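It is worth pausing here to work through a concrete case rather than discussing structure prediction in the abstract. The textbook approach is simple: state the sequence, then state the predicted structure, then interpret. We follow exactly that order.
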Amino acid sequence: MNIRAIKTAQTESAVERIKIMTKKEVKKVNYKIPQIFSEKKQYMQSDAFLKDPHNEKMLELGDEIFECRYQIGEEIKKMNKFTNNKFVQAINGFTRLKKEIDKNNMLHFEETPSINNRLENKYRVLRNIELFAESQKALI
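Step two, the predicted structure:
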């Protein structure tokens, strides 16, 4: 499932509203944007940016991360049908018991039970190792 390809009328409407609000606020500030920022923005919106091998890899990793989070969410839905201890997907993407996250929403990966270690381990590797490694390659 390609998460970037999903668009609905509601999401497009929300994006347009945010653009309008942002433009109003930027006009109030009235500051000069350095030319290098404008050039980088133009590059990032060009085909050359998307065809760059590093950027292609980063976008692929992003898609894999979103797909993995989606699968974790689906597993949570299935599991919650059969248990009184409800699971939720924490803001960091990992599975948490709802009662535990209500107590402390900054829990780490190892601190609470998981419903699917395979998916969560894959998510952790993608997010914390592969994405980080690709970012470091770009800096080098």
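Step three, interpretation. The mean pLDDT is 78. The beta strands are 87-89, 95-97.
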